[in-house]
Amino acid sequence: MFVQEEKIFARKVLRLHICTMEGTEWLEEVTEDTTVEKLKERCLKHCVNVSLEDPKSVTHHKLIHAASERVLTDTKTIIEENIQDKDVLLLVKKRAPPPPPKMTEVSAEEKKKQEQKAPDKDAILKATANIPSHSVDRTVAHHSMRDFQTELRKILVSLIEVAQKLLALNPDAVELFKKANAMLDEDDDDRVDEIALRQLTEMGFPENRAVKALRLNHMSVTQAMEWLIEHAEDPTVDTPLPGHTSLEAAGASASSSQASGGLNTEREEVKDELTEIFKKIRRKREFRPDPRAVIALMEMGFDEKEVVDALKVNNNQQNAACEWLLGDRKPSPEDLDKGIDPDSPLFQAILDNPVVQLGLTNPKILLETNCSLSICLALPKVDGQWPLEE
C-alpha cells in the first residue's frame, strides 16, 4: 500500500474559537506550526471594517488567550504559545499611543513652568537692590526646653502655695496629709535592700562598700558585685556617695531642731498642723542627685556642690548638667523654689479657670502635685500625658 509523504508527516489541525469586541464569533482551523501573526491575518479577513491592504492593520491588533488572559506574541507559533484545541482567542484592537506634543505646546508648557517657578536668591537680590534694608541685625529668640520647665515649675509652685492656703481651713486635709506622711515613712527610696546587702557582706565585702555599690547599681546584687570587684583597688571606694551624707546630716539637724523646739512648745504659739505636715512631706521629697552622674561630672574637675546644683536644675540629666556648668548657669538653683508673680496676667488667667479652682480645693490634687513635681519636669510628655507613677 502506497501512502503519500505529506500524509505521513501531516501537522495536527486545531479548531480555535475566535471572538471580536463587536461580538463576531467563528471557528478557525490552523495547524500547530502556524504563527500568531498569520493567524491574526486570517482573523482580520472576517472583520468588515478592517482593510488588509493597510500594512499597519495587523500590528494594530492583538490576540489574547481568554483562559490565561495573556497576549500572544506574533513571532511565536501556536504550539509555542501552548494553544490547545477548542481554546478561545480574543481579537482586540490595540490602544493608539498618544500623539507627541507639538513644539508650540512644549514651549508653552515650559513657559508656564518658568512663570510659576519661585525666584532664587540672585533674582531676589536683583529685584530688591533699590529697596533700603530694615531690621538687618534682628535676633531671633530661641526658647529652650529648660526655660519651659523653669516656667512650668514656677507655675506649679505658686499653685501649691495657693492650694496650701485654701486647704488650711479643711479639716479633712490634715488627716489625708498625715496618712501620706506615714506612707512616705514606710516607702523610703533611699532604703537599702537588706537581703541584697546580706548577700554581699556574706561574700566578704565591707558593709559600707556594699551599700555604696547597691545604690550605684539600683539594688542589683550581680551588678553591685561586679562593681566592687572592679573598684577594689580604687582609693575612693570607701568615700560615701555625694548627697547621702548631706541628707543624713540634714535629717539629724532637723530631728535635733524638732527636739529643741519641743521644749518651747508651751511658750510659743502652736503653728498650723497642715503646714508642718506639708513641710515634712517636702523634706522627704528633696532632690537626690544621680550618684553616677555626680561621679562622672566630678571627674571632669567640677566641685561637688556645683555638680549637685547642676543636676538639680537639669533634673538629673548628665549632659544638660554639663552644659549648664560650662555655660551661664541659668537658671540658678535658688530660682527653682520661687513661684511666678501672683499679680502677673498669666497667673491670674490660670486662677480664673474653673477647673483649676476646683482642683485647688482638693487635698489629693495638692498631694499629687507636690510628690510628682520632679517627675513631671524630668520626663517628657508621651501622647500628650505625663508618664506619672501610679
From TrEMBL:
<dbReference type="InterPro" id="IPR041927">
    <property type="entry name" value="UBA2_UBAC1"/>
</dbReference>
<feature type="domain" description="Ubiquitin-like">
    <location>
        <begin position="14"/>
        <end position="98"/>
    </location>
</feature>
<dbReference type="InterPro" id="IPR057650">
    <property type="entry name" value="UBL_UBAC1"/>
</dbReference>
<feature type="domain" description="UBA">
    <location>
        <begin position="191"/>
        <end position="231"/>
    </location>
</feature>
<feature type="domain" description="UBA">
    <location>
        <begin position="288"/>
        <end position="328"/>
    </location>
</feature>
<dbReference type="InterPro" id="IPR052476">
    <property type="entry name" value="UBAC1"/>
</dbReference>
<dbReference type="InterPro" id="IPR041926">
    <property type="entry name" value="UBA1_UBAC1"/>
</dbReference>
<feature type="compositionally biased region" description="Basic and acidic residues">
    <location>
        <begin position="108"/>
        <end position="119"/>
    </location>
</feature>
<dbReference type="InterPro" id="IPR029071">
    <property type="entry name" value="Ubiquitin-like_domsf"/>
</dbReference>
<dbReference type="GO" id="GO:0005737">
    <property type="term" value="C:cytoplasm"/>
</dbReference>
<keyword id="KW-0677">Repeat</keyword>
<dbReference type="InterPro" id="IPR015940">
    <property type="entry name" value="UBA"/>
</dbReference>
<dbReference type="Pfam" id="PF22562">
    <property type="entry name" value="UBA_7"/>
</dbReference>
<feature type="compositionally biased region" description="Low complexity">
    <location>
        <begin position="249"/>
        <end position="262"/>
    </location>
</feature>
<dbReference type="Pfam" id="PF23326">
    <property type="entry name" value="UBL_UBAC1"/>
</dbReference>
<keyword id="KW-0963">Cytoplasm</keyword>
<dbReference type="InterPro" id="IPR009060">
    <property type="entry name" value="UBA-like_sf"/>
</dbReference>
<feature type="region of interest" description="Disordered">
    <location>
        <begin position="94"/>
        <end position="119"/>
    </location>
</feature>
<feature type="region of interest" description="Disordered">
    <location>
        <begin position="235"/>
        <end position="268"/>
    </location>
</feature>
<dbReference type="InterPro" id="IPR000626">
    <property type="entry name" value="Ubiquitin-like_dom"/>
</dbReference>
<protein>
    <submittedName>
        <fullName>UBA domain containing 1</fullName>
    </submittedName>
</protein>
